[in-house]
Design brief:
Chain lengths: 655, 150
């Protein structure tokens, strides 16, 4: 019953999206103006219906209704409740439902609160949002119905991959999706503005909170995903340039560029076409990412060709949405004026350079991710991995980080390097000293070497914009920028330090034996069996000590065996100190009664994710600052309007 | 993230048990490091750039698949015997094809991978140059039209 309710809500939502599109388009013409008035309420109801369908799916997962095919395939009555719920979106159909839900709710929210833009632009925006949604509704309803029933009803479900039974992962996909789909609002605003040719500061201010919010979610999602891979997969890797990781990185790169150009547009009314273009590109990257992950094309081009239904559907959506948007852009770009001008040595100039470099990195990631697919289609198999992506992206990232150190101190429109040159002396000296020390002490590969230098220099330079300003009266948005840029430096130091200074130890030890990894002494104290709700495990008790006279701490890595579905995983154990992490994994038992241990000492590695969180926090501060200003501004303008009305009334009364 | 999102797709999840309960490699250097730290480091650096042929999207340095273990052992043995990493890579590519190396080699199939970053570099330089020289010309020509911008 609940499943049918969900399906009905979904169909209704799709129908309303159709109405929203129609109303939005007709509302732009003179005859259809009356129809335009239904668009906002329809958008809100459509969002609510999608939300209702999503809750229905969560409900059937929570009660493990095995007559629903999706539940039978992906859930199991013995799973903990939280993973039953998370299982609702841990699969293809469920995640696509989450996609349309977020899209519908975001559209409804825009319809409800956004009053600053001209009504015509709003109509075009909401029509654009409906158009994209409609494609995804069709995809969901026609080729991946999440509410399909199963007959006969199986006695038990097939379970969820144990790797996914992890709290971090339960909330990782929704976070990324909020980011992916949040960018759809930016996309729709861009379409709306192109249709009515009203690109300007007001447009940028309306778009900015959405870009910021989506970007925050993407940042958190990528950071959490990276940490999850690091501790759950048991090999200590945190980024591998895997196509799936790249699929989340590409929208982030585009959104980062968009975030900066939309700020220029809001503050200075410059970079109009460029911002609109990035708005289109950012959500396009979200769709490309979804296509890559969802179509199965990553497993193999041939697998995709054998069962191409879903993949071709998404590919067609992709072609229609991106192609359509770019065509509109090509038609209208020439008629949107470029906006205010500026010198290369200015805040805008630095932002333009960063934007171009970010786009170049985006291009490399996109090309490197897609090229193996192209090659496979041509009949050759190639792999493109870290040895390609690291140096190629560094080619553009290094100059970008240098500009990032300088840019925030520059004034808008035109500035002189001599004015800020003095304040850069200290960070420059830091870099020189650091490079000397690194060369003398350690043998570090080029990229981590550059990363450490840039990280340290940038960490200093990123707080310089605070100099000489009244910190109490500083706008939140400026704090946000400083915190985010500082976060980039922190993450960079973490990444470089991890690749430059990690020590690895693979050993087979007897119980009672002590082994060394970096500054740590590790003793295997005992091995004992333990049991969880749907797994059993062998647990190693390790006693570890930092240096010769540190405190002894216990670490308990496990080797788990799940039974639904049957699978082994290793649960790593981590010990975090201020200066790094000790990472321990229990491997198998050898024939001679020895146990395999994999141990790593990774100096400063937590900085990677700390930096990621700082970047997101910076975004949050900026978002709060912007929204507060917007609210204040709208209250003020309301008051002015009220006063004007009052005065007019008074005048009329007198007359 | 590396292994997961593909696994997220429903189809892969049904196939997941096939991954389970796999035997670990018993090759001598699959889980044993070389004595010489410099050689071990060279071996690790190489292993991180070689693809596990059995798993999806993992290097042989971080996989429990038996074939990854055998390949690790092979890499360590050859490094120990004094072969250079690039010789070993070439040997593996000859045997298993380009697919095995995460570092694409420059061939007639892969040249666009190396051409494209150069093209991007060129475009970036041209774009910025054009933008800023145009600006300068415009500004030099008409300092008077600044009023309308503000």
């Amino acid at each position: 019953m609940i499943a049918e309710l969900g399906l009905a809500a979904l169909w209704l939502a799709a129908a309303l999206a159709g109405l929203q599109l129609l109303g939005g388009m007709l509302g732009l013409t003179r005859k259809g103006e009356a129809l335009g008035r239904v668009v906002r309420p329809v958008a809100v109801v459509q969002g609510l219906l999608a939300l209702c369908a999503f809750f229905c799916l969560i409900y059937v997962f929570a009660i493990t209704d095995l007559s629903v095919k999706l539940v039978a395939l992906n859930s199991h009555s013995l799973k903990p409740l939280i993973f039953k719920i998370a299982g609702a979106w841990g699969n293809h159909e469920g995640s696509m439902l989450l996609w349309v839900t977020v899209m519908g709710v975001a559209g409804g929210f825009v319809a409800l609160i956004e009053r600053r833009l001209p009504e015509r632009t709003m109509l075009a925006t909401l029509a654009g949002q409906a158009f994209v949604s409609l494609g995804f509704y069709a995809f969901l309803l026609l080729s991946s119905n999440p509410f399909e029933r199963l007959s006969p009803v199986p006695a038990e479900g097939q379970g969820l991959n144990p790797l996914l039974q992890d709290l971090g992962l339960a909330f990782h996909p929704p976070t990324l999706y909020l980011g992916y789909v949040g960018l759809s609002v930016a996309f729709s605003f861009a379409i709306g503005a192109l249709v009515t040719r009203e690109v300007g500061s007001a447009f940028a201010r309306a778009m900015r909170p959405w870009v910021l919010a989506a970007w925050i979610f993407l940042t958190v999602g990528i950071t959490a995903g990276s940490y999850w891979a690091y501790y759950e997969l048991g090999w200590g890797g945190w980024w591998f340039w895997d196509p799936v990781e790249n699929a989340s990185l590409m929208p982030w790169l585009a959104a980062t560029a968009l975030l900066h150009s939309v700020s220029v547009l809001a503050a200075r009314d410059a970079l109009r076409t460029w911002t609109v273009m990035l708005g289109v590109v950012a959500f396009s990257m979200s769709m490309v990412g979804t296509f890559l992950v969802r179509s199965g094309i990553l497993t193999s081009v041939h697998a995709f060709a054998v069962d191409p239904e879903r993949g071709s559907f998404i590919l067609a959506l992709l072609a229609i949405n991106i192609g359509g948007a770019l065509t509109l852009f090509a038609l209208r770009a020439a008629t949107v004026s470029e906006g205010a001008r500026f010198a290369p040595m200015s805040r805008e100039g630095a932002l333009v350079i960063n934007n171009v470099l970010l786009c170049a990195i985006l291009g490399i990631v996109l090309f490197g991710t897609l090229y193996p697919l192209v090659a496979e289609a041509l009949g050759a198999q190639v792999s493109v991995g870290p040895p390609y992506f690291n140096p190629m992206s560094a080619l553009f990232a290094v100059p970008m980080l240098v500009v990032l150190a300088v840019g925030p101190m520059l004034r808008w429109r035109r500035d002189d390097f001599a004015r800020i040159g003095k304040s850069l002396v200290i960070p420059a000296m830091l870099v020189v000293v650091m490079s000397g020390a690194l060369v003398a002490v350690a043998d570090v590969a080029l990229l981590p070497f550059l990363g450490l230098l840039l990280g340290v220099g940038l960490a200093w330079a990123s707080v310089l914009p605070l100099r000489g300003r009244n910190l109490r009266r500083l706008p939140l948005a400026v704090w946000g920028m400083v915190v985010a840029h500082f976060g980039i430096a922190v993450a960079l130091i973490g990444m470089s330090s991890e690749s430059a200074f990690s020590t690895e130890k693979l050993v087979a030890v007897e119980v009672g034996e002590i082994t060394q990894v970096g500054p740590w002494g590790v003793k295997l104290d005992r091995i004992e069996p333990v049991a969880g709700p749907n797994w059993t495990a062998l647990e190693a008790r390790l006693l570890v000590r930092y240096g010769p006279d540190g405190k002894v701490t216990r670490l308990t890595p496990q080797s788990r065996t799940f039974w639904a579905p049957p699978q082994n995983t290793s649960e790593s154990a981590l010990l975090t100190r201020w200066n790094g992490q000790l990472y321990a994994v229990l491997g198998g038992e050898g024939e001679d009664g020895r146990w395999q241990l994999r141990l790593w000492w990774k100096p400063l590695v937590p900085l990677i994710w700390l930096g990621g969180l700082l970047i997101a926090l910076g975004g949050l501060l900026a978002l709060l600052g912007r929204v507060a200003t917007d609210v204040r501004r709208s209250i003020q303008s309301d008051r002015i309007a009220e006063r004007r009305e009052g005065e007019e009334k008074l005048r009329e009364d007198r007359a | 993230m590396r292994r997961v999102l593909p696994v997220l797709s429903a189809v892969a999840m049904v196939a997941a048990p096939a991954l389970a309960q796999q035997e670990q490699s018993t090759a001598p250097f699959a889980y044993r490091q070389l004595e010489d730290p410099a050689k071990e480091r060279a071996a690790m650096d190489l292993m991180e750039t070689l693809r596990c042929l059995q798993c999806q999207g993992q290097s042989i340095a971080d996989s429990d698949a038996p074939i990854a273990g055998s390949m690790r052992s092979l890499v360590r043995e050859r490094i120990k015997a004094g072969e250079s990493p690039e010789e070993i890579r070439a040997w593996l590519i000859e045997r298993y094809g380009d697919y095995v190396s995460y570092a694409p080699q420059l061939t007639e199939v892969t040249w666009p991978l190396f051409a494209v970053p150069l093209v991007f570099l060129l475009i970036a330089v041209l774009l910025l140059r054009r933008r800023f020289t145009l600006r300068r010309e415009v500004e030099e020509r008409g300092a008077g039209d600044e009023g309308e911008e503000a």
